[in-house]
Structure prediction request, 414 residues.
Amino acid sequence: MSTHTTDSLDAEPLLQATELFKAFGLTEALDRASLSVTAGETVAVMGPSGSGKSTLLHCAAGIMKPDAGSVRYDGRELTTLSDGERSELRRTEFGFVFQFGQLVPELTCLENIALPLRLGGMRRKPAEAEAEHWLATFDVTDAAHKRPGDVSGGQTQRVAVARALVTTPRVIFADEPTGALDSLNGELVMRLLTQAARDSGAAIVLVTHEARVAAYADREVIVRDGRTKTGVLA
Amino acid sequence: MSIGHALLALLEAGPRHGYDLKRAYDTHLGADRPLHYGQVYSTLSRLLRNGLVEAVGRESGDGPDRKRYAITDAGITDVEAWLAAPEKPEVYLQNVLYAKVVLALLSGRDAQRVLDAQRAEHLKHMRELTKRKSDGDLVDQLICDHALFHLEADLRWLELTTARIDQLAEQVRTTTEGET
Prediction:
């Protein structure tokens, strides 16, 4: 059992997960896993299926509480926040892109992108104006008034990325964002995601088992059997 | 593939005749391309000249060469450096990577470090290609994509080998026992 990372040691981390443990029943999903991300940095979390990389993302993003260990974001300890406080943090500071199933099927693509702004209290018109800007940026204006089920997989994922970016998050958590796409669409999504994050200064935690997707990141963290190890592959 | 380094690594288990070295090489690494005796002896001569092996005795008998060769300290250092240095990521690297993993296992080194160092080197090169592709025109994109797909295939092999490293170590151990 061995796991390795290249790790950024120069800058102060914006997000730092340290020595996380997480078990589901008798299965240890994380076993002293650590991850740090600096502002504006894209880090790929790689590993085989079942290695614990998605669990690491969920713990680092405050979706899931680890059984032990620390997750610090911008000076705050996430593991001691209440569920409500963590929800608020996720809504205001983080963006999420998953492989599929993240858009509300009853809403149009435009409404889906505007949704995080509406949940934050923004009025409908300015929220939808902002959503239109993102639809144009990602070249999916045609999908504005269609529901997610009525557009292609590539367009759906671009809408999902737009929705993750619309609140100008400081960290975007992307879990296999191209997993359901063909090579060309996957590449387009990765280029749009990384370019938009670079423009806004957002960091990305990118979970993937595909090396070609990981190659969009600044560095990689390898997870195996729930473990990570830093500084081995400097 | 560096035959010299392979022979040096095989000599770490103990002094051997040229014939035994060829047999060990063919068993572990030369299934598709066994060594010729000429290659073995010319390589050993070069290693001897460079101080990486030494002759430790000659047995009487028929045959072209009954010298036994032993690896020197300089030879061990040379093998160590070769195994530790990742290969330049190029297409169709499997032969040399496989040889490094097997030789690391045979010589009691951490084969996982060989795989990890290579993975990091491949990903570094893939990042460079991805950046070049992002900044370039369609021709750049097509050229880089070709290289990226091949590198990705290598990485899949590295990942599979990592998953099977214990199994491979056991097989190498069993084969080595069969030699003696």
